[in-house]
Amino acid sequence: MDIFPAEVIGTALLILFGDGVVAAVLLSQSKAQNSGWIVITFGWGMAVAMAVYAVGQFTGAHLNPAVTLGFAANGTIDWGDVPAYIGGEFVGAFIGATLVFLSYSNHWRATEDPGLKLAVFCTAPAIRNTVANIITEIIGTFALVFGVLAITDPGNNLTAGLAPLLVGLLVFAIGLSLGGPTGYAINPARDLGPRIMHAILPIPGKGPSDWGYAWIPVVAPIIGGVIGALAYDWWWPS
User: How far apart are CA 200 and CA 183, in angstroms?
Assistant: First the structure.
């Protein structure tokens, strides 16, 4: 499978399961309503694992422009492949967010708070502070990319097929430890793609899409991802 369709499929699965678990926890009259942060973080971790299992054999399953740009910066992939990766990631995010919208079609009108509806699609900080929010997203994405490179390092001699599960557990750990301040976007496509769909889709009673904050979960993860990839190669050169 070529890069673009593989990244579309993988990222669509990521967003379907990831935004889906947020919808399950936040939207009114959902059977999982109010089941909490542990459910959300574990759901996102398993979303990553399942998406990587689905398309990892074809592209390495970046599913994240911050990963793609980090891997291009350290020479893991060619810069010429970057547009296909990022294009697939954003198209997949659009599709995944739309599928979540359709899956919870009976719950949007039942949910009065427009902030909860927006939270299904994208992140927002618990306390708005531009510098602090940027730092949190940089650290979280650094941990993601650095951790992925550590897990998949050939020196670990992992049993075949174990790496995607460990990457999912890494995302689970990041959510538990670093997700509190900003909701741990750590992925520009995961945040911006669904945010665009929130603005476009006919969601009853939705509010604004918080475009004033939207640049932070795009720019900061890219910085963190590139630093994470370069730092791993610097500290553990092959």
Answer: 22
Task: Report CA-CA distances (Å) from 146 to 80, 111, 138, 188, 227.
Answer: 23, 38, 12, 17, 9
Domain count, the chain: 1
CATH number at residue 64: 1.20.1080.10
CA 184/CA 45 separation, integer angstroms: 12
Full domain range(s) for residue 61 = 3-235
Summarize pLDDT for 154-168 with one digit per residue, the tens: 888 888 789 999 999
Nearest CA to 110 out of 23, 223, 48 is that of 23
CA distance 203 to 221: 28
pTM: 0.96
d(CA 80, CA 19): 30
Nearest to 15 by CA among 183, 197, 190: 190
